[in-house]
Amino acid sequence: MWAIVILLQTTMTDIRRSLLRRDALSAAKEVLYHLDIHFSNQLQNTAAPVVDNGSVELVEEFVFNLPKDRSMQRKKMTSLQELQLLEITCSYFQEQGKDSLRQIIFAALFSPQSNMADDRRMAMLGKLVSMAVAVCRVPVLECAASWLQRSPASHCMRLAKVLVDDYCNSAPSPACALRDIVTVSPRFCCQFITAVTAVYDLSSDDLIPSSDLLEMVVTWVHDNPRLTLLTFLSAPMPSSRPPGALESTPLLGLVRWCVKSPLAYKRHRKPLLAPCPGAALALGPAEGGRAPGSLYSMLHLSVLQILVSLRADLTEHHLYGRVGVLPLEHVAKLVGELAVLVDQLNPGDAAAESELSLNRLAQALQVAMAAGALLCSREDLRCLCSRLPYNSLLQLVKSGPFLQPPHPEFQQESYPPIHVSTARS
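Below the sequence we write its predicted C-alpha cells.
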C-alpha cells in the first residue's frame, strides 16, 4: 500500500515539474490529459474512484493558477486564454464517451474544497455551464446536475445566480437558450429550479424572481410536472447526500413562491394581477408579458397536481410514511416566513393578499399530508400554524381528521380529501 502511495507521489511530482515549464494554457490542457489517464486507470480497478489530494493540487495550481509555493508568481491567463480553456474543457466533456469518467473529472475540477481556490473554481464553473447552455453541451449540463446534487447549497445558489444573470436578467434577454435546455437535460433543469427557488425566496424585494425567470420555470413545470421529481425518484434515499445540500426536489421552493408571492408583491408595491385576470393564460413562450398573478396561480395548480401524484410514487418505492418529501422543519420555516410577511403589512391594506396566501398554504398542506409528502400530526400542524391569522380553509385543514401514512409515530386514521377547487386559488 505504501509503495503505491510513494509511486503516486513520485508521479505527481514529475508531472508538476513538467507543467511548471509550460505556459498557463498549455499547462491547464495538460492537467486535463493527466486527469483522464489517472482516473481511467482507477476506474479499471474500482467503480467509485476517489479524487485524491494530488489531483486537486494540480488543478488548483495549473487550472486555477494558485501556485503551490505562495512566493512564486505565475503568469495569469489573458481573457482570450480563459475563453480558449473553457472551449477546451467544454470539448473534453463533450467528446469523453464514458459518463463515469466525465463525472469524476468534473468533481476533481469543481468540487468545493473550502480553500482559497474556491472563488476561482466557482468563477470558471459558472462560465463553463453558461457556455454549455449557449451551445447546448449536454454532457457538461449532466455533470453540472450531479454537481448541484452533491454540493453545498450556498455554492449551488451561486451557480444558479450566474445563470439567471446571464440568461434572465440581461437586456435584451437571451432566456430562450436556457428555456430550451429542458428538452435535452431535464435533470439539470430540475436541479436548477431547486437552486433558483432557494436563491429567490421572496424574503426581500431584491429576491423576487424576474418575469423571464418566473415564466420559464412555470412553463417547465406546467408542461412537464414530473420534471420536479427526477432527482428524488432517481435516488429517493441517497446514501451520500452531504449536509447542507439542496432539497431533494424543488417542491418546497415552488410552494414558497406560490404562498408568499401575493404578500411579497404587495410589499414590493408591484401589481400581481393583470387588469383583465382572465387574459393571456396560454403557456406558449411566445406569449410573453403575462401577469405574475396568472403565472403563480398556474404554478400553484401544477404543484398541487404533483403532490397528488407523489402518493403513488412513494408507495411504489416503499417510502410511503417513511420519507417526507417536504421536511416538517422546512415547512415550519416557510410558515414562519409567511407569518412575518403578514405582520409586516397592514392587515386592512392586504386582506385579500393574506387570504390568498393562507388559502394556498392550506391547500398545499392538505394535499401534501394526504399524499404522504408531509409527515405531520394534527398537533404538529396546529402548533405550526399558531402564529398565522385565522383562515377558514386553514382552520378546516387543522381540525379535520386525516390519514398519516403507516409509520410507528403516527396512528392510522383517515384523511378524506377536501375539494380544493372550491377554495380560492
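The chain has a mean pLDDT of 84.
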